[in-house]
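tool=predict chain=A
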Amino acid sequence: MTETVFVTGGAGFIGSAVVRQLIENTDLHVVNIDKLTYAANLSSLSPVSKSDRYTLEKVDICDAAAVRDLFGKYRPVKVMHLAAESHVDRSIDGPGDFIQTNINGTFVLLQAALGYWRRLDADAQASFRFLHVSTDEVYGSLGPTGLFSETTQYQPNSPYSASKAASDHLVRAWHETFGLPTVITNCTNNYGPYQFPEKLVPVVILKILNREPIPVYGKGENVRDWLYVEDHARALWRVMSDGRLGETYCIGGKCEKQNIDVVRAICRLMDELSPDPERGPAEELIEFVTDRPGHDQRYAMDISKISAELDWQPAETFETGIRQTVSWYLENRWWWREILENRYAGERLGTGQSAAE
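tool=predict ok
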């Protein structure tokens, strides 16, 4: 009998990468549980959506009755929880959605999973797993040296990271208090194909294509550890399959870059891969803008635990990953044009002016 795995948020950027890999590389039946908010895109699942092992359930994880019904209907052996509001700038402008989905939604999902798990027989209980996917942003900001690890103190600085920190704590508590077999991952900045064009990498690519100014916050000196999304998806399945229950695993790309260096690398690739003799170098479009409130200075991740315990390392360097990403956006204009025309026109977010309105 084919076993079933739930992927919440499977129409999102990271979730769709997970779904694609599971359909392509396993024999599992994948149920994608997604509310289909603005950032969801079913086109990201077109390579696998016709598989008889893929099912979409349009359900809000905050809907307790609907979530309980899904557990009874499909009887999953594993839950991979990626559904979340995830854009820091949007959390500054409208934190309420982040509290509702990331905290209350995780609570609802944990309660449904716990009730379902308690009704399983001993063998099924032993094989059940609940993976909660989180972010390095829960740890706050690093100085010029050092790395985040699984034992770093939580110190979230944005409404987004605070909501994810709260959900991490809920997952840990449901394991420690109720015995629910959970595991948590915290990842660094993801990039790659199918990323919603409000995030830095696709923003830069599309601004260059449109010959519009490329906005860079502050002086562009904020540092991030960049992780190719397909590497992240592989890591999540490794943790799901073999991670120790009750543990946290940090996932990173071993690739620290200042934001301005990421922008310049994309500019150079665009000049190479999409040349236009009538325009100047893409770097001429860079425009430094007012920094966003509470902008963490540096993130970087120690991945020695997942490397040692689960034999995982990122396969892509930044150079190979960003080239694949730029090429994908150039070759798949149909995917992002629909978004820009109907859902998001590239406007500035995250000023904080509307948060209390």
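The two ends are 52 Å apart (CA to CA). DSSP finds twelve helices and twelve strands in the chain.
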